């Protein structure tokens, strides 16, 4: 079957299409004919090797995590789905990829495709939906009336997380460029900082939580807008020792990740703020709940651009430019 793969880690990963073996199934897995797959920033980072100690692939490896498609085969222990069912899923951190004609999906990672969404719309959701759900509900325990800062509000994560936070009853602050202010306001953002005109840390105050989505010094600057007793959950790093222990990584990596996060943890503690790193995990049960929010239109997909399968590499290159409003999706069927 045809898949978008990379052959090695580093500056020349040789990303391109290849014919790969038709996947075989374990008892709890399904074979899904992929109709659409969306791309995420980590898809451009994986081939560089930066996550090599954490994400394990057998090279050459298929890229991508998000997908929507139709079940064509099921393992003998699969009970919730049958051949012909339309599903969507994230297969992130499972050692395989979604930008391919077919993908192996564990039953536990899949959910029924929301009936009101087409395959392109459904494929745009899993990674950003699960990341937002796990960060806001599990790690931050966001409650009605609280204030949460979600920077980069017009991006893939931002457009979903703003809507979820509003559904949870929170007030949302965000940053974006001048042209995207109407978009994030429409999604529900209460305080919008145009980063081309103002610095958010000089404008926002009294926040209960931060969802870190921007690399660089934005995480440290966000401490200034938080109340004592607040939390920062970052999905962009730095990685911390708690994450290493949760992944059962070796002592050396645990030590290294501890060093990487030592400064931000120390600075946060001076303001009685807790710093946590979060790595999204596939979860079909949560995705099913997210699907319910999509079917009831409490949350709507935001898609910037759709590429045909033949231009999957170009989709990654477009995403890497950092200007997408919402998600970038590859349409196979």
Q: How does this structure look, described?
A:
The protein folds into two domains: 2-125 and 302-331, Medium-chain alcohol dehydrogenases, catalytic domain (Quinone Oxidoreductase, Chain A, domain 1); 128-277, NAD(P)-binding Rossmann-like Domain (Rossmann fold). The strands form three sheets. Strands 3, 5, 6, 7, 8, 15 and 16 form a seven-stranded mixed beta sheet that branches. It has a six-stranded parallel beta sheet with strand order 11-10-9-12-13-14. A three-stranded antiparallel beta sheet has the order 2-1-4, with no helix packed on it. The longest helix has 20 residues, at 251-270. The protein contains ten helices and 16 strands. Helix content is 29%, strand content 26%. Helix 3 packs across helix 4. The chain has 333 residues and is α/β, with parallel strands linked by helices.
List keywords for this structure.
333 residues; alpha/beta; Quinone Oxidoreductase, Chain A, domain 1; Rossmann fold; 2 domains; seven-stranded mixed beta sheet; six-stranded parallel beta sheet; 16 strands; 29% helix; 26% strand; globular
Short structural summary:
By secondary structure, the chain is an alpha/beta fold. The protein is 29% helix and 26% strand. It is built from ten helices and 16 strands.
Strand fraction equals 25-35%
* Mean pLDDT figure: 96
Q: CATH topology of the largest domain, anyone?
A: Quinone Oxidoreductase, Chain A, domain 1
In the CATH hierarchy, the architecture of the largest domain is: Alpha-Beta Complex
Distance between the termini: 14 Å
What is the CATH superfamily of the largest domain? Medium-chain alcohol dehydrogenases, catalytic domain
- Classified by CATH, the class of the largest domain is Alpha Beta
The total beta strand count reads 16
């Amino acid at each position: 079957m045809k898949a978008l793969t990379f052959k090695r880690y580093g500056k020349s990963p040789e990303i391109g299409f290849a014919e790969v073996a038709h996947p075989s199934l374990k008892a709890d897995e399904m074979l899904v004919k992929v109709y659409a797959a969306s791309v995420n920033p980590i898809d451009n980072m994986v081939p560089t090797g930066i996550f090599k100690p954490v994400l394990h692939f057998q090279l050459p490896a298929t890229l991508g995590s998000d997908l929507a498609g139709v079940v064509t085969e099921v393992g003998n222990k699969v009970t919730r789905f049958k051949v012909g069912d339309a599903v969507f899923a994230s297969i992130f951190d499972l050692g395989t990829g979604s930008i391919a004609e077919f993908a192996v999906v564990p039953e536990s990672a899949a959910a029924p495709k929301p009936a009101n969404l087409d395959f392109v719309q459904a494929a745009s959701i899993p990674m950003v939906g699960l990341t937002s759900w796990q960060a806001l509900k599990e790690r931050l325990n966001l409650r009605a009336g609280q204030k949460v800062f979600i920077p980069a509000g017009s991006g893939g994560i931002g457009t979903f997380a703003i809507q979820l936070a509003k559904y949870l009853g929170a007030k949302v602050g965000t940053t974006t460029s001048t042209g995207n202010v109407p978009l994030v306001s429409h999604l529900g953002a209460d305080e919008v900082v145009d980063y081309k005109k103002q610095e958010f840390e000089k404008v926002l105050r009294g926040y209960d939580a931060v969802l870190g989505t921007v690399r660089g010094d934005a995480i440290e600057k966000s401490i200034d807008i938080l109340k004592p007793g607040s939390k920062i959950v970052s999905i962009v790093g730095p990685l911390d020792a708690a994450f290493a222990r949760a992944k059962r990584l070796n002592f050396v990596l645990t030590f290294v990740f501890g060093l990487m996060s030592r400064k931000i943890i120390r600075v946060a503690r001076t303001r009685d703020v807790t710093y946590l790193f979060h790595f999204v995990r596939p979860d079909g049960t949560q995705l099913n709940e997210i699907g319910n929010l999509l079917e009831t239109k409490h949350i709507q997909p935001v898609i910037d651009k759709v590429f045909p399968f033949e231009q999957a590499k170009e989709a990654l290159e477009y995403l890497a430019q950092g200007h997408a409003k919402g998600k970038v999706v590859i349409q196979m069927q």
